[in-house]
């Protein structure tokens, strides 16, 4: 019996080639998209699970109340880890570390800048599974001037030689001894680093690890197996209230499983590359939409061609087949379609993976014999086959053999109603996808073209080190001698727009009329002279900072947001005390964006800090890029022989802020096009069946004098009505979803009526074109041939 079913299914597949092609292509597209998204989701959700202490590890973070506004801060004070382990019985271990990136490592003739190093304690290796392949964590931390390397870094500098005991130089200043080598950090670890230096090193060079006032360290704790997160949360919530130099911050624990996907911290207090649960949810929804459209196609076409299989069902019932057998047969057909499409989808996935990896920034692979992927693939094939085939199976198996074999017309009202529902659903999903595509691209276009308050084009920055940093004035003068260079300035590391702008609590600033209980964050720009001119900021009141005015070393500029937040009605000339620096406000700059447009423009204070310089800022005259870059490279190389230095463009730094959004947009565009193509294929097949079924009606109408355009309008009107209903359903759903997405941006593109109307018109034109193709053939046919059997 099973063999017979397979033979019949195969014959049905070959007999209805258009039906089979549309369903297989639709299924293959939907399954391929789902497989790609599943690979992405599995990768995103497996972060940090390799740690044996996975379920008991937590990061300690804090919420800060700044004048009624709560901010999430990922860094904590240095003493916190030790204090929590001593004071909270449920904390069985704790560790802390600080970042030390962009470090110059030297061994022999190898001189390379490495971006990912940390200061840490040996407890890091007790809590996390970063195994040593040479040395142990107990011996690797015995001396302050030690360094632990990953296998990748050890091989990079020492090749096949044993690195233990070898000396490596850092920043041409310190010599450290390699005391351990650990396995390379897994790609699915939220902690990423290439070398570790003991905390004792920074203690030796004067860093005070007893201060509670500064948030510069990342703190992790390991709880006992018996501890409950609620109990520990309650104990640490107000822990800061008893500590010096702290305000009313609230401590909380972030589970290790949540760090990669649920980290949303303010003031650049997180580190490394993070995922986003919103993208996981977004892509899951997208995959579901594409798969639903493919399933709707199958159900539509199966019920539409029901009359062609009615006699088959009748004959089978006459010769003894019961309904269960017929249901089994039709479900088998659906599963076979799904299986063939699934095999095809594996080829599609393999071809699409390089493109998908490039867009997502992942290195995903599909391993055929991996039990996880095999299970996901098999489950998906069965689910798609059953969901797509269950209604057609029950619908087709319900035909009465007496009516069918007597030639009585079938009651297909239920089938027609379902087809209308499914077509409406397809139209709605397609419209939602198109609206989403347009809005996401409009928002990204808005971000790229909106005036920032500064000019990022033709602006180059160079990280300053060694002699380049020591000879800033000479370098600046030499650069300005080139007529292709318009202006030169410099900034501190934490004052670099679009990279990392540091913030200070308002406790460090005093100004007339300040309420002692008023707390807010102000961004601290420590810059060199000509910073305003180099970034082309606009002065609203007063003047810029000038090297020709000696007192400007103690002068301040405020942005409009700072003036408003501080409540200064006449800011020019007002005295300000910023930590140990006292001066007056000499100017107000118009608000400018210095970080992502996901955030409002926040208060900023700009002042000159002559000895505090990390980046060289160079404005090039338009259309003189090649000449200017050659000059920059020559001068910079002359002063940085001991440090490899390169230049970068400010607009690249700005674009990097929206890299995740750009990737999401590209993927959504591809999926939207795929969804529309699958919908179009389904509509093509459905229109073919419907117009063929109404051929006699068209013939009669033509005999009675109906014109071809009137017949086109008649057959298209049903679809146009469904499209109108689909639009009315799709518009509010799209609006709600996209409004939620836009809330991530403080600055948003305008949402107009045309954003919703145009996608509906586009789907309408596509539908009418497809329907007209089939209707035209039927309407142009000779009525005599159509009606000759009547």
UniProtKB/TrEMBL annotation:
Transmembrane segments: 21-42, 279-299, 326-353, 373-396, 417-440, 667-690, 711-731, 751-773
Domain of life according to the entry: Bacteria
InterPro entries, per the entry: ABC3_permease_C, MacB_PCD, Macrolide_Exporter_MacB
Pfam families, A to Z: FtsX (PF02687), MacB_PCD (PF12704)
Membrane topology designation: Multi-pass membrane protein
Keywords: Cell membrane, Membrane, Transmembrane, Transmembrane helix
Domain MacB-like periplasmic core: 20-238
Record's subcellular location: Cell membrane
Domain ABC3 transporter permease C-terminal positions: 287-400, 670-781
PANTHER family attached to this UniProt entry: ABC-TYPE MACROLIDE FAMILY EXPORT SYSTEM PERMEASE COMPONENT 2, MEMBRANE COMPONENT OF TRANSPORTER-RELATED
Name of this protein: ABC transporter permease
Organism name: Rhodocytophaga aerolata
């Amino acid at each position: 019996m099973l063999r017979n079913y397979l033979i019949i299914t195969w014959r049905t597949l070959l007999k209805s080639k258009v039906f089979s092609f549309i369903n297989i292509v639709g299924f293959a597209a939907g399954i391929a998209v789902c497989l790609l998204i599943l690979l992405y989701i599995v990768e995103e959700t497996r972060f940090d699970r390799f740690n044996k202490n996975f379920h008991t590890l937590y990061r300690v973070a804090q919420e800060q109340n700044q004048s009624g506004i709560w901010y999430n801060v990922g860094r904590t004070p240095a003493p916190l880890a030790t204090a929590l382990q001593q004071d909270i019985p449920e904390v069985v271990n704790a560790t802390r570390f600080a970042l030390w990136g962009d470090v110059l490592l030297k061994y022999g003739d190898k001189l390379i800048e490495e971006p990912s190093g940390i200061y840490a304690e040996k407890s890091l290796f007790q809590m996390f599974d970063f195994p040593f392949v040479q040395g142990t964590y107990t011996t690797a931390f015995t001396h302050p001037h030690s360094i632990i390397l990953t296998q990748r870094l050890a091989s990079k500098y020492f090749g096949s030689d044993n690195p233990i005991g070898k000396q490596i130089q850092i920043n041409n200043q310190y010599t450290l001894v390699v005391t351990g080598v650990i396995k390379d950090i897994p790609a699915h670890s939220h902690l990423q680093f290439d070398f570790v230096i003991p905390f004792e090193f920074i203690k030796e060079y004067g860093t005070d690890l007893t201060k509670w006032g500064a948030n510069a360290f990342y703190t992790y704790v390991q709880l006992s197996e018996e501890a409950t997160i609620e109990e520990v949360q309650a104990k640490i919530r107000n822990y800061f209230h008893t500590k010096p130099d702290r305000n009313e911050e609230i401590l909380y624990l972030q589970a290790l499983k949540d760090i990669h996907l649920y980290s949303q911290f303010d003031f650049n207090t997180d580190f490394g590359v993070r995922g986003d649960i919103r993208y996981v949810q977004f892509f899951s929804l997208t995959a579901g939409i594409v798969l639903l459209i493919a399933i709707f196609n199958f159900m539509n076409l199966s019920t539409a061609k029901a009359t062609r299989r009615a006699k088959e069902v009748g004959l089978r019932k006459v010769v003894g087949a019961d309904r269960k057998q017929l249901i089994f047969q039709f479900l088998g057909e659906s599963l076979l379609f799904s299986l063939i499409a699934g095999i095809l989808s594996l080829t599609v996935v393999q071809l699409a993976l390089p493109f998908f990896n490039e867009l997502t920034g992942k290195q995903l692979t599909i391993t055929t014999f991996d039990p996880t992927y095999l299970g996901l693939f098999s489950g998906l094939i069965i689910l798609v086959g059953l969901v797509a085939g269950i209604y057609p199976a029950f619908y087709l198996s319900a035909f009465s053999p007496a009516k069918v074999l007597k030639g009585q017309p079938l009651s297909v009202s239920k089938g027609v109603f379902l087809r209308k529902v499914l077509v409406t659903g397809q139209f709605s999903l397609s419209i939602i996808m198109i609206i989403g595509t347009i809005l996401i691209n409009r928002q990204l276009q808005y971000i790229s073209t909106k005036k920032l308050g500064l000019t990022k084009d033709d602006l180059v920055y160079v990280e300053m080190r060694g002699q380049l940093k020591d000879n800033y004035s000479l370098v600046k003068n030499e650069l300005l001698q080139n007529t292709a260079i318009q202006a030169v300035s410099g900034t501190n590391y934490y004052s670099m727009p679009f990279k990392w702008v540091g913030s200070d609590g308002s406790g460090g600033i005093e100004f007339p009329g300040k309420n002692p209980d008023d707390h807010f964050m102000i961004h601290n720009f420590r810059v060199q002279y000509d910073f305003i001119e180099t970034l082309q900021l606009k002065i609203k009141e007063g003047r810029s900072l000038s090297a020709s005015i000696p007192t400007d070393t103690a002068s301040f500029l405020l942005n409009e947001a700072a003036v408003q937040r501080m409540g200064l009605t006449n800011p020019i000339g007002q005295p300000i005390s910023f930590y140990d620096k006292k001066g007056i406000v000499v100017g107000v700059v118009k608000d400018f964006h210095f970080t992502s447009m996901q955030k409002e423009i926040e208060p900023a204070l700009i002042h000159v800090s002559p000895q505090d310089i990390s980046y060289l800022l160079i404005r090039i005259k338009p259309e003189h890029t090649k000449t200017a870059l050659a000059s920059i490279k020559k001068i910079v190389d002359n002063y940085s022989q001991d440090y490899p230095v390169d230049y970068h463009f400010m607009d690249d730094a700005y674009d990097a802020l929206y890299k995740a959004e750009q990737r999401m947009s590209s993927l959504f565009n591809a999926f939207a096009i795929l969804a529309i193509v699958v919908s179009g294929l389904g509509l093509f097949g459905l229109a073919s069946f419907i117009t063929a079924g109404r051929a006699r009606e068209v013939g009669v109408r033509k005999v009675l004098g109906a014109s071809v355009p009137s017949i086109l309008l008649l057959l298209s009107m049903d679809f146009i009505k469904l499209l109108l209903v689909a639009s009315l359903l799709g518009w509010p759903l799209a609006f709600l979803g996209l409004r939620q997405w836009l809330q991530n941006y403080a600055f948003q593109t305008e949402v107009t009526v045309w954003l919703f109307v145009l996608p509906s018109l586009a789907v309408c034109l596509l539908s009418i074109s497809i329907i007209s193709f089939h209707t035209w053939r039927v309407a142009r046919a000779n009525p005599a041939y159509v009606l000759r059997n009547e």
